Amino acid sequence: DAGVHSKPWYAATCDRKMAEDALYRSNKDGSFLIRKSSGQDSRQPYTLVVFYNRRVYNVPIRFIESTRQYALGREKSGEERFDSVAEIVENHQRTSLVLIDSQNNTKDSTKLEHIVRVS
Question: Which residues form the SH2 domain (predicted)?
Fold first, then answer.
Protein backbone atom coordinates (compact mmCIF):
# COMPACT_ATOMS: atom_id res chain seq x y z
CA ASP A 1 0.00 0.00 0.00
CA ALA A 2 1.27 3.44 -0.93
CA GLY A 3 0.05 5.00 2.31
CA VAL A 4 -2.45 7.28 0.60
CA HIS A 5 -5.91 6.20 1.64
CA SER A 6 -6.28 8.02 4.95
CA LYS A 7 -4.49 11.16 3.80
CA PRO A 8 -6.28 14.52 3.39
CA TRP A 9 -4.49 15.16 0.07
CA TYR A 10 -5.66 11.92 -1.55
CA ALA A 11 -8.67 12.39 -3.81
CA ALA A 12 -9.79 8.80 -4.29
CA THR A 13 -12.74 9.36 -6.61
CA CYS A 14 -11.29 12.25 -8.55
CA ASP A 15 -10.47 12.24 -12.27
CA ARG A 16 -8.07 14.53 -14.10
CA LYS A 17 -10.64 17.15 -14.98
CA MET A 18 -12.07 17.33 -11.45
CA ALA A 19 -8.55 17.65 -10.02
CA GLU A 20 -7.57 20.40 -12.44
CA ASP A 21 -10.82 22.31 -11.83
CA ALA A 22 -10.34 22.13 -8.06
CA LEU A 23 -6.76 23.43 -8.34
CA TYR A 24 -7.75 26.29 -10.67
CA ARG A 25 -10.41 27.25 -8.14
CA SER A 26 -7.85 27.25 -5.31
CA ASN A 27 -5.61 29.52 -7.43
CA LYS A 28 -2.71 29.28 -4.95
CA ASP A 29 0.84 28.38 -5.94
CA GLY A 30 1.80 25.13 -4.27
CA SER A 31 -1.76 23.80 -4.12
CA PHE A 32 -1.80 20.06 -4.71
CA LEU A 33 -3.58 16.75 -4.44
CA ILE A 34 -2.91 13.18 -5.44
CA ARG A 35 -5.33 11.21 -7.58
CA LYS A 36 -5.40 7.80 -9.17
CA SER A 37 -3.80 7.86 -12.60
CA SER A 38 -6.20 7.74 -15.52
CA GLY A 39 -4.45 4.84 -17.21
CA GLN A 40 -4.88 2.33 -14.37
CA ASP A 41 -1.33 1.15 -14.98
CA SER A 42 0.29 -0.65 -12.05
CA ARG A 43 3.62 0.96 -12.95
CA GLN A 44 2.09 4.42 -12.65
CA PRO A 45 -0.67 4.13 -10.06
CA TYR A 46 -0.99 7.77 -9.01
CA THR A 47 -0.62 11.31 -10.27
CA LEU A 48 0.53 14.32 -8.27
CA VAL A 49 -1.45 17.35 -9.42
CA VAL A 50 0.19 20.70 -8.62
CA PHE A 51 -0.87 24.30 -9.25
CA TYR A 52 1.85 26.86 -9.94
CA ASN A 53 1.97 30.15 -11.83
CA ARG A 54 -1.64 29.83 -13.11
CA ARG A 55 -0.95 26.34 -14.50
CA VAL A 56 -1.79 22.83 -13.42
CA TYR A 57 0.88 20.15 -13.68
CA ASN A 58 0.06 16.44 -13.67
CA VAL A 59 3.17 14.62 -12.46
CA PRO A 60 3.09 10.83 -12.79
CA ILE A 61 4.03 8.80 -9.72
CA ARG A 62 5.75 5.61 -10.80
CA PHE A 63 5.92 2.36 -8.86
CA ILE A 64 9.29 0.66 -9.22
CA GLU A 65 8.62 -3.06 -9.03
CA SER A 66 12.23 -4.13 -8.41
CA THR A 67 12.67 -2.01 -5.27
CA ARG A 68 8.98 -1.63 -4.28
CA GLN A 69 9.47 2.14 -4.22
CA TYR A 70 7.91 5.22 -5.80
CA ALA A 71 9.39 8.00 -7.92
CA LEU A 72 8.10 11.07 -9.75
CA GLY A 73 7.98 11.68 -13.49
CA ARG A 74 9.91 9.82 -16.16
CA GLU A 75 12.69 7.49 -15.11
CA LYS A 76 16.05 9.23 -14.84
CA SER A 77 19.43 8.37 -13.40
CA GLY A 78 20.01 9.44 -9.83
CA GLU A 79 16.31 10.03 -9.22
CA GLU A 80 14.89 10.24 -5.73
CA ARG A 81 12.98 7.15 -4.67
CA PHE A 82 10.56 6.86 -1.79
CA ASP A 83 9.05 3.99 0.17
CA SER A 84 5.55 5.46 -0.02
CA VAL A 85 3.57 8.16 -1.77
CA ALA A 86 3.17 9.85 1.62
CA GLU A 87 6.97 10.18 1.81
CA ILE A 88 6.99 11.95 -1.57
CA VAL A 89 4.45 14.47 -0.28
CA GLU A 90 6.27 14.98 3.04
CA ASN A 91 9.58 15.47 1.24
CA HIS A 92 8.19 18.05 -1.18
CA GLN A 93 6.45 19.95 1.59
CA ARG A 94 10.01 20.69 2.80
CA THR A 95 11.99 20.79 -0.45
CA SER A 96 10.98 22.23 -3.81
CA LEU A 97 9.57 20.05 -6.54
CA VAL A 98 10.81 20.78 -10.06
CA LEU A 99 7.93 21.27 -12.50
CA ILE A 100 8.78 20.77 -16.16
CA ASP A 101 6.56 22.26 -18.82
CA SER A 102 7.11 19.99 -21.80
CA GLN A 103 5.30 22.32 -24.22
CA ASN A 104 7.35 25.42 -23.50
CA ASN A 105 10.40 23.52 -22.25
CA THR A 106 10.56 25.61 -19.08
CA LYS A 107 11.27 24.61 -15.50
CA ASP A 108 9.73 25.99 -12.35
CA SER A 109 9.78 24.78 -8.81
CA THR A 110 7.46 25.00 -5.84
CA LYS A 111 6.83 23.27 -2.56
CA LEU A 112 3.62 21.37 -1.85
CA GLU A 113 1.95 23.86 0.45
CA HIS A 114 -1.86 23.83 0.19
CA ILE A 115 -3.89 20.65 0.27
CA VAL A 116 -6.88 20.90 -2.06
CA ARG A 117 -9.95 18.85 -1.29
CA VAL A 118 -12.23 17.96 -4.15
CA SER A 119 -15.86 18.40 -3.24
Answer: 9-116
Average pLDDT over residues 46-61: 95
Could you give the CA distance from residue 119 to residue 117 in angstroms, rounded to a whole number? 6
Contact of 19 with 11, CB cutoff 8 Å:
yes
pLDDT category, 38, cuts 50, 70, 90?
Answer: confident
Nearest to 50 by CA among 70, 77, 73: 73
Q: What is the DSSP string of the chain?
A: --S-TT-TTEETT--HHHHHHHHHHH--TTEEEEEEEEEEETTEEEEEEEEETTEEEEEEEEEETTTTEEEESS--TT---BSSHHHHHHHHHHSPEEEEETTTTEEEEE---EE----
